[in-house]
Structure formats: C-alpha cells, structure tokens
Amino acid sequence: METPYAVIILGAQRSRHPQASLTRLSSSGLTRGSTHEHDARMAGYVYIITNHKRGTLYIGVTSDLERRIWEHREAIAPGFASKYGCNLLVWYEEHDSIATAIQREKSLKRWYRKWKIELIEGFNPDWRDLYPELW
Questions:
Q1: Quick one: which of 26, 96, 98 has its CA closest to 68?
Q2: Measured CA distances, 54 to 32, 79, 90, 91, 127 (Å)
C-alpha cells in the first residue's frame, strides 16, 4: 500500500502563500512514485526538472513520466528545457486524470519562484535526481 503524503494546493488568490493550505490525500488520490499500471483514462503527472540545485526550473505535464523524462534527458525535442539543460527530475506528482494534472501544471506555472523552490525542498530537500528512483 502506498503511503499518503501532503500536497500543497494553491488557494484561489495568487497572493496567498501555498504553505497555508496543506491537504493530506490517500493513495486513491494523488500518490508519490506509484508503480501500478493505468488504463486509457490514465493518470497524469506534473513534474519539475532543473539543470542544477536552485537552477532553471521547467514545469511540465505528461501521461507517461518515465518516457517524458527520458526525452528531456536525451534532448529529443528542442525547446525551453533542452535550451537550458533541464534534465534532472526534482519533483513530481501523480493525478488520477490528465485533466487534473494539466490544471495543476497551469496553477504551478503561476506560482512565484520562491513557492516552487519550497515545494521542491519539501518533497526533495537535497534536490536529488528522482528519475533513477521512479521504477
């Protein structure tokens, strides 16, 4: 059984600090590092990659986290992440649907940089590359 963990959820006001609203969710909701299979209505993942600790941050969304991070690491597609050498997975979150993952990605992209760093450091204080630990 997967262990529930705290997830920071941004309130309705942009000026509100994300740490003000912590929610504990069960394994039926958001989960960390899930290894179970998903069907066509599958989960979505929101992730943050960087080039080094406290470096350039890239926030993305995908239905296949392992494949997408591999693509970033191999610089398969040109774009922001490859331009700045962002290939270290430092944070991710699984959602029950891709729609909620997209909504969360859009929300995180509006956060202040400080909030994003706090989110990463609450999940991964050493800024380890989490990709090798996924599966």
A1: 98
A2: 22, 20, 10, 12, 8
Series of mean pLDDT values for 10-residue runs along the chain (135 residues): 36 32 32 44 90 97 96 92 96 97 98 98 97 89
Query: What is the total count of domains within the chain?
Result: 1
Instruction: Indicate the Cα dihedral angle 61, 64, 67, 72, nearest 10°.
Output: 0
For residue 31, the 8-state DSSP code is B
Residue 62: which domain range? 43-133
For residue 67, the domain's CATH number is: 3.40.1440
User: Does residue 17 fall inside a structural domain?
Assistant: no
Q: How many CB atoms lie within 10 A of CB 11?
A: 11
For the entire predicted model, the pTM comes to 0.71
